[in-house]
Amino acid sequence: MxxxxxxxxxxxxxxxxxxxxxxxxxxxxxxxxxxxIDLRDRSGIVQIVFNPDYSGExxxxxxxxxxxYVIAVKGQVVKRDPETVNSNLPTGEIEVRVTDIEVLxxxxxxxxxxxxxxxxxxxxxxxxxxLDLRRPEMQKTLLLRSKAAKIFRDFLDExxxxxxxxxxxxxxxxxxxxxxxxxxxxxxxxxxxxxxxPQIYKQLLMVxxxxxxxxxxxxxxxxxLRADRQPEFTQVDIxxxxxxxxxxxxxxxxxxxxxxxxxxxxxxxxxxxxxxxAEAMGKYGSDKPDLRFGLELIEMNDIVxxxxxxxxxxxxxxxxxVKCLNAxxxxxxxxxxxxxxxxxxxxxxAKGLAWIQVKEGEFRGPIVKFFSEEEIAAVKERTGAEEGDxxxxxxxxxxxxxxxxxxxxxxxxxQLGLIDDSVYKFAWVTDFPLLGYDEEQKRYVAxxxxxxxxxxxxxxxxxxxxxxxxxxxxxxxLNGYEVGGGSMRxxxxxxxxxxxxxxxxxxxxxxxxxxYLLDAFEYGTPPHGGIAFGFDRLVMLLAGRTNLRETIAxxxxxxxxxxxxxxxxxxxxxxxxxxxxxxAIKEKAKK
Amino acid sequence: MxxxxxxxxxxxxxxxxxxxxxxxxxxxxxxxxxxxIDLRDRSGIVQIVFNPDYSGExxxxxxxxxxxYVIAVKGQVVKRDPETVNSNLPTGEIEVRVTDIEVLxxxxxxxxxxxxxxxxxxxxxxxxxxLDLRRPEMQKTLLLRSKAAKIFRDFLDExxxxxxxxxxxxxxxxxxxxxxxxxxxxxxxxxxxxxxxPQIYKQLLMVxxxxxxxxxxxxxxxxxLRADRQPEFTQVDIxxxxxxxxxxxxxxxxxxxxxxxxxxxxxxxxxxxxxxxAEAMGKYGSDKPDLRFGLELIEMNDIVxxxxxxxxxxxxxxxxxVKCLNAxxxxxxxxxxxxxxxxxxxxxxAKGLAWIQVKEGEFRGPIVKFFSEEEIAAVKERTGAEEGDxxxxxxxxxxxxxxxxxxxxxxxxxQLGLIDDSVYKFAWVTDFPLLGYDEEQKRYVAxxxxxxxxxxxxxxxxxxxxxxxxxxxxxxxLNGYEVGGGSMRxxxxxxxxxxxxxxxxxxxxxxxxxxYLLDAFEYGTPPHGGIAFGFDRLVMLLAGRTNLRETIAxxxxxxxxxxxxxxxxxxxxxxxxxxxxxxAIKEKAKK
Lengths: 591, 591
Known about the structure:
The structure is a homodimer. By secondary structure, the first copy, chain A, is α+β, with helices and mostly antiparallel strands.
């Protein structure tokens, strides 16, 4: 009884054919002695019928099957009676009259129904992942993920990229934080680390003359887990030599265009919008702005500096800023509705949230009285405030203002229905700052990593204003998510030395942390740069899901546990002996 | 100076074009003020010329470059003078007259030449792997590996296989030997393990209705390293539901056919030869026979049992066997040459090695006198012995005879030049024994793994002679290497229980070791089976190499060390504290 057809494949064109199907019993209904079974395989569902008129003994056997039994059947495809056509099913116009059946395997009653939209606890789904995966939406997502990987590979292969596997047993990174460690049996007291990314290897491949490299690479980060992180994740890792940033970004846009066309059938317009980091932060309060809607942040410093609103004046005096969000149409909100924004804004660091309603032709709200008529007119003009609008003000340092209004922008955009979920809005955010000042360590730190190339025209700023140097670094954002990022890398020794100086690293530290890489860079390193896409997240967005776990066959929970395998787990002392380690649990206080 | 062409791409068709090339200085020669540089990139080498007549300042700049400098040049492609054509180079008929040059980066003198066939210590090559990778033969191998992976993927994709990623942070296997462990930060005192293979996950995917799965998967095994093992290795992992063994094997043959055609241009004839395990062991003394030559082992028990050679008679009496290898043409060997085979055979367990020379029309050698004339005639007929042949006899238990004569067969085959290195001779070895008797544990153990399906007609033997059960397990062998293997899996509960009984496992042990998998098997498991190819080894054979390290971009040494990164390495105590472990080095005696 080897399968001749897949269940979901049968159409009216198959009518008259004798077929053999293999699959799972989805549901069964007995109507007056005639047994109808929905048979499911990976391709879909088809109705098969057991009737005393033609099924003979097969009917008795079929009658003993239950949900999730695995069966093989042989029968003839026939047209359904018009009144029994099921237009919800692609195979709904036909059914299969079964003459032979073989029960390949029995099944216990599963702990939840094998169908889309089951409402069961996620931990139950994860424990029985092998049943969860049978649900059509999970099958579809796995298929989509496989297809997306194939499209990446095909495109990159056509562009001359070589798929190179880099080690998973590698060296602990200089800081070592968040590294998963692996004790060595052969080398007592020494450890491998799992890579947080193949960054160093891909740069070494460029030194090695590979010129165009890619890998769909597993990466590992032992961090406190949030809803959208996994201890192991997959990135599409790409590095090229001899390409400019513009050439690389253009190529990646074509890659995204192909990916979206061939998976979700959407034609993306090229080129993607490009914003500098400064623009993105200024207009959207985010380095990964959702550009499916407007609601831009508006600079107000010049207008409100002289107003009687003390907090505005004092913030501006201290070098901070005041910005406004015009929540169109929210002027009709009740006082309570407006006040409820306060705690939300506070989560993002706001100490307060000033607002003005435009109601019955005039500005209303607690701060209005501190404005002159000229100032009110200027605010009106700058914000385009109209009847029924709500102006929200944040006054603080740049970061807080961006965080607060950026978050409010998203919340209100969603609330007002400004976001079209069917739209995929890509953009590049470029010119990230190269260095950030760490107040605690009293020194500059690399925003991306210490091999990120500064913009040519900013190199002189190393001597005068390192914080103002823009990096040749870029993120690719989609609908408010960062789906990838990368940079051009430093390849000239003098620039690298300036960078290390700016980071206040001593020669010894440099040698200790990056010695072998710097050695490598001395032997004829080509100009190079690259990018990495967060594959799990891209698949999540393509699948229209909101949780990374839905895109991974066997994910871990938010507490980094594999519920199916029950991992991690204790191991035998003999195993630890072999690895020259011992468990050492500290008192809770020590944590 | 963005590249317009690749170096290796330029031919006489490019003559007259102005091109921009980016690459590395391979060699430079100054001939009477004219500078010739061989410029190398990933695609190949081309000669570029700096001449005072047309190069201007570029000549002075070029004169300062040294080997491995990275340069960009612009110039015109011209035909070489007939007397300077280099027929060793694909680009040897043309050269590029350079008008502009930019030095992209300088280079120190590399520790070895960047060219094929360098004779330097492998550890130096591994330490400077990024330079080693620049050598054309390494580039070619990386490209071949990438291409081979692509062919696997394309084929499997076309056959409806889904690429599913399975976890790398997983659970320690029941025995735990050879597992790499990863301490958990979140779960104190608990450990993940790196997978030795995705075996369990791929079976769960079949339970999950994925039907056809593949993955080019990284696997890990912490074992004593031999020349041809790596702590992390890559396998092409495949599993299917609803396919018979014959269908799967046929599909895999077509996959190999495509792989070899599209990489090395060899057309493999299908179907591949199939031998049972018993045949392979009997005829070739190996379960991975090199079938590029004959020299089969010949059974002699019936002929020699009654001879006066005591050791033959006594071995046969104890249930052992006597076999013969006819080393054609080696009858002319000196006594010393023959005696030298003794120590070699001893390495494989031989206690002695009897022999007969056919010289001047008669049998000669120490044992000849113990044979009757009839016996000599029978030996002659059975072995086809002719003038100039050498008959080698091994008498011992089956295993030793196979090991000894299998090894001698290979040695003599090589020595006699019977092996054609240009031939790829594939075969399937099938019907491996399901169980082997472990004398130490006094019980049967699974030869493959406990989920391997027995042949249908052998299931009854569970009750009478478990050791005689043949498994639906198969290896694919190529030129004496095992390049893959797999099995059909048990999917019926009653068979699985018989298997566990045969392994003398208690209910508790079964639950403890395989509980979650057995649970999974209860919910409607389809018939399934699969195979895994050793990707590193396949690439090694395709590339004509003899060392797995040559096929891996960043391999580890035989002592599991990464010489480039210097891993494994000690880590900070703070890191270990976070992971709740401590180093515990025992006195050497304890090891």
